Amino acid sequence: ATQINYNYEKILSAVFAASLLLASCSSNNDDEPNQPQETVEVFILDATGTVAEQTAVEAKKTINGRWSIGSSASKTSAKAQNCSLNYIEFTDSMYAISILTPDGIEAAFGQYTIVETNGTVSAVELNVNVLGNNHLIATLTNIVVTETANNLIATFDVVFNIPADYEWACGSSLSGDYSAEKEEPLDEAEDATADSNFAKLVNTWRLAELYETGENGELVDVTEQINEVCDYDYDTYEENCETGSLEVTFSAYGTYLFISYRANGEVADWGEGDWEFANSDQTELTLTEYEEYDGVVTEYENTMVITTLNDTEFSGTISNIDGEETYTQEFIFTIASN
Predict the structure, then answer these.
(1) Cβ contact 312:335 at 8 Å
(2) Among residues 246, 149, 215, 185, which one has the least CA distance to residue 42?
(3) Taking 80 as the threshold, does the pLDDT of residue 70 lie above it?
(4) What is the pTM of this model?
(5) How far apart, in Å, do the first and last CA atoms of the chain sit?
């Protein structure tokens, strides 16, 4: 029996929080200060329509966001009597799908493909990386998004095709037709400008450097350890480790997805939670992380202070309080290329 073993769990938990730091940026209004600035919509939040009648560009705007499936959507309940879809979320390039099982929450992440036939969309395909190979695990069709009483509702059909080497408790049993309600975006998304901290944050970032304070007050580089993915074989008592990578994706809907990848691109571990700004200057934010143990989900909140942010990099510091101890990290994230 082989199990994944991750070193430096406290550091990884802190990176979950650190990954949501962003920096203060000011816009340059020196030119023609009295001239009104043109408002450009950065995020399309209320797109509707029948996806089968749309182009791929239009469809991507229509499906973007987190969609809660019926009454099963949950962040604080980790178990269900039977398998059920929890939510599905789309960013510009990635998807996340969560299910509730009798044993707890399970999820899948990866790239999605919009399939066009004769210029309009015929399907949306969800892919996962298993042992370095991409597998199609689900196909969505007949996607229709409508607005009812100021709520966006999506209906769609999904057919699951879970490969044998992909561990998912419910297999392909959840195929069927569904109705889902779109969660509300953060208030800042409504009037975000392209050069705002909010707009720069909503992206996928890769951990480049991480330092923590050592016993003598010196900074210790722990980047290699935190990027390491290890498998421990309890039959042979051997541990095999490889250098992977860590990425975090932020959405305009106040959610984040943190993924640890193996060197071949396969997902090794993941975390999710909610984020929101802690001040009006958008220089601090609060991260709510959900941790499951034995079917019980506990919420943890961290407040981050930031130093710099631009289109390709952001860095900062975070103090993670664990009981009576405080762990301080300094980090650098760079933009992840898709």
Answers:
(1) yes
(2) 185
(3) no
(4) 0.77
(5) 34
